Amino acid sequence: MAVLAEQESGSAARILGAARELVLKRGVKGLTVAEIADRAHVAKGTIYLHWSTREDLLVGLFGRDFLASHDEFAELLTADPDAARPSRLLPLLLQSTVDHPFISALQSEDEDLLGVLTQHPRSAKLLENLGPAALLRVALPVWRRHNLARTDWEFDEQAYALQALLLGFLATAVERRALAIIAVDEPARVIAAAVTALLGPEDPGPGDIRATADAALADLATRRAALLESIGN
Amino acid sequence: MAVLAEQESGSAARILGAARELVLKRGVKGLTVAEIADRAHVAKGTIYLHWSTREDLLVGLFGRDFLASHDEFAELLTADPDAARPSRLLPLLLQSTVDHPFISALQSEDEDLLGVLTQHPRSAKLLENLGPAALLRVALPVWRRHNLARTDWEFDEQAYALQALLLGFLATAVERRALAIIAVDEPARVIAAAVTALLGPEDPGPGDIRATADAALADLATRRAALLESIGN
DNA sequence: CACTGAACCAAATGACGAATTTGGTCAGTG
DNA sequence: CACTGACCAAATTCGTCATTTGGTTCAGTG
């Protein structure tokens, strides 16, 4: 099983922390390995004991945001299966994206922060497999199966609409560009209402919520494993 | 009253046509005034009889897309006031955006097509005042007033949700980036259903539809005048 | 008077060698 | 054996200057 570098080495953790701070402050472009090493109080060579290239380190950094997000969802769903409801999960998903700067940066293709890695295949793969849209694609069938979404709407069309809604909320919440003039205090409440409007009233039978949460947890575990595989050492 | 250059001069019309073809084919970047003049079979100097700078010509080109879109809506709403319903107007708005390449390009900030004009203040102003989001902002209050949208939802929140929905659909329909995996045959039907889900069933009384269409037409006329002012000669 | 196209010139581009930077390596150290 | 930092090849940046490009002008033409 893959294991994260920072779990077995304090210096790896410091390197990640330093890299994170520096990328968030000044972006990937122009950020040098020497700087990261300096701030982490290690020599350059040490970085290459844990990652084999600079790109590996940076992509690993992004991956850790997805990892953190997944783990938070796993924890939440374990403690509170009710959070698997669409009207709760989608606002949480939106919030989680906003809260994890690298997820939002990838979602909005933030050139300033990600530099050349914006369109990079490995970044794209992260977003495609683990981003909010991906989560949504696996969640909708489960919701339909457990009376948490209306089924009198063709699946593809419903998925398309839900995806557009989520992308729209993400764009207005995350993107810098000011296409969105209207602002609102609690986007989370608004998206919850919008999701309920789209998917219809939630009418779970006994066990439906639990089953949904379990399906979500199982999926999260699968994704987590694949993610670890791709960023672990 | 401002009047369009092409209405009083054949050469102006040819210049616009040539510029449009060339921009659509190869983008603004690298496109020279000499090329436009060549294709329009006029000398370079002639262009400056109608527009005072190259930028003026290009922005005028974009503006004409908005003009065309507005005129199509005006015509449609005059012939068929029922098209002012949210469930009809929003799909039309989406379709109109897709159909007018410069509107979509501005909406999606298409760097390849618009080059340096993507973020240009004058382009931004066009989109902000005349783009789909702008239309939506003025339409929603009218719909609420005439029983075409539920009013048991706070205005700002409803507007925010509707805007996000529209932006999401625009993004999936117009943008190149492949965040949207799910595709669908008739986006127009899907957005109609989504809009109805968000705004509730339409329940117009006698005269409500007509009044809505009239308000829309009045607004279109105002915007058209302002637009002419900014791109006319 | 609508239109032309040669002429103008500010700005962009390209060339190119020198100087500097930087990702990655590895022999050595404590 | 985790870590260091001098070292190197490759890439990037910089400075400078010649050349070209391309938007704009305007005296002239038919």
From TrEMBL, chains A, B:
Keywords noted in UniProt: DNA-binding, Transcription, Transcription regulation
DNA-binding region positions on the chain: 32-51
Stored Gene3D superfamilies: Tetracycline Repressor, domain 2 (1.10.357.10)
Annotated Pfam families: TetR_N
Transmembrane segments: none
Gene Ontology MF annotations: DNA-binding transcription factor activity; transcription cis-regulatory region binding
SUPFAM superfamilies given in the database record: Homeodomain-like
Matching PROSITE patterns: HTH_TETR_2
HTH tetR-type domain: residues covered: 9-69
Protein name in the entry: TetR/AcrR family transcriptional regulator
Organism: Kribbella antibiotica
